[in-house]
Amino acid sequence: MGWMLVLFDLPVTTKRERDKATRFRKKLLDDGYSMLQFSVYMRSCPSWERMKKHARRLRIYAPSGGNIRAIFMTEKQWIKSIAIVSEDYRQQKKAEKPHQLGIFENW
Fold it and tell me: Is the pLDDT of residue 90 over 80?
């Protein structure tokens, strides 16, 4: 079991670029990703083969002019990660907890 993290910087200076970036984020959500931070999305991937499948999909709907990274982390690596979020941090759209595992309950 593992997690695929997608990190991206997309141009958003024009309306057309913003529309492309919005479509890209919606495709991630439609493909089972959850927003972890504004430009960081994640989804569970039970195998390396499944991660490669989703990486191929990313290449298909990646907008031009952007920088997109996909990282695969094992469950063991993910559990060891930490999140430091200050009490006064306000996120415009609250990130949803992934439904696959309950490891976030302690965060």
Answer: no
Note the pLDDT tens digit of each residue in 15-66. 999 999 999 999 999 999 999 999 999 999 988 899 899 999 999 999 999 9
Answer yes or no: are the C-beta atoms of 42 and 31 closer than 8 Å: no
Name which of 65, 90, 91 is nearest 12 in CA terms. 65
Cβ atoms of 77 and 68 closer than 8 Å: no
Cβ pair 67, 39 in contact under 8 A:
no
3 state SS for 23-65: HHHHHHHHCCCEEEECCEEEEEECCHHHHHHHHHHHHHHCCCC
Assigned token pair, 78: 């993910």
